[in-house]
Amino acid sequence: MTFTVWCPDLQRVRLRVGGTNHELRLGEGGWWHADADVPSGTDYAFLLGDDDTPLPDPRSQWQPNGVHAASRTYDHDAFAWSDSSWEGRALEGAVIYELHVGTFTPGRTFDAAVERLDHLVDLGIDLVEVLPVNSFDGDAGWGYDGVLWGAVHEPYGGPDGFKRFVDACHARGLGVVLDVVYNHLGPSGAYLDRFGPYFAGQNDWGPGLNLDGPQSDEVRRYVLDNALGWFEHFHVDALRLDAVHALTDRRALTLLEELSAGTARMSAVLGRPLTLIAESDLNDPRMVTPRSSGGLGMDAQWSDDLHHALHVRLTGETDGYYADFAAPGALATTLRGAYFHAGTWSSFRERTHGRPVDTSRLTGTSFLAYLQNHDQIGNRATGDRISASVSPGLQACGAAIVLLGPYTPMLFMGEEWAASTPWQFFASFPDPELAEAVRTGRRREFGRHGWGESEVPDPMDPATVERSTLDWSELSSPGHASMLSLYRSLIALRRSHPELADPSLDSFVVEVADDDSWLVMHRGPLRVVVKFAEESFEVRTTDWSPESPEHVLLSGG
Q: Is the pTM of this model over 0.90?
């Protein structure tokens, strides 16, 4: 087989395979090549210049021994897929479920997660969003500190394990969304800059990529090949692009536009719909505007404003970025137009922020709505869920707004039964100095907000991972079972009444009480009435008046 690696500024590159070093030859564009007769499953590494330190392949497909060790050759064609009849799953009308493989089950693997997929089918889920599965240093972590983007994290089950998971999802009619991170690399095992000019500056999380400087064409190709490879080789149905606002890209043709175009071509080749979902805090509707209309071509984006407005209404929290969402009518404003900050003053940013959404051109499908997600839980000091702060009925009110409103709803794992387990920040860096830096940095960050050191969980303690792992025995407990029944009922209502999945925003009407005690969403001939009250809750259909159409009523408590 032929081994290739991009090292445009080096004078010498060697390949170590089978205990033997091979000199690579320089070809066009800074690409080095070497041929070696080795079978699939052979370990190999690169030696750069006269340094005898072996380094993993930047485009590695398999890292069985961690991010600092040799790469291993991998044959994608050797996996026996059973999803040949899979026609894909479009985003329109879908309900998304976000999960982290390492804490979804006590088994912490793809195979263990497969054992719980029938629960998601029974719940009514359409798309399963998996937090990053690329290789990172250590066994446990959120996945956002990955450094070898094409290699699936071995403790989860490696590349074959992920393929078994996707195959099992498709067998049950579930599409798969994969969370990918291109805005930075993790702090351990990020060797890309030794191979070439991959890095350009730093952001809040680590080194960023050189997307628009000299020799950046191949860096962009590195990202594009990785993204499209998940569609082609792992059969995923969508990508969630982490924090795209942190991408520094001043080119006329942006990386996101290139990825949108490449995804469209891949969709045509594979014959199934493929979706791109961006996380962006820019509040810029051009993110989800088609390329043909001058936009960046993302199919959807996360909408934190919807979360913030709902969170403040349910919990009363007004610290930090929540402050602006305590304004009268903030929830209704955000429900009508996806963004609360739409060219308006943001006290958290100390400037105006965002621009309005043209609801005659964009639909609710383009914006994900959620009561919780991994960030909004895990980035709290103790990783507490909303169910730890509000009554079951108020959580039900929030769920009804998310699931019966015009936006694409997303749940975070365990939300559907008001899981008592928190979801805390955790990592497992083997380097003791790095581990201590992360530990003290986390405590210092929250100490500035009034938390004592003992109150902030140690992210390096294995007990933090244990606490954050779902307890599936809760499903049969009375309080948890009733919440699960409610979520099932809401999703079933959404399916049985097409009006409740209608993403049209130009005809969407929201009414609110003067004292904010109730909210009504007009959904075609239906009305979703949400009463924010401390009493038992129910979901039912009823007549609003003799002459009015059917309504859906949810009472909270």
A: yes
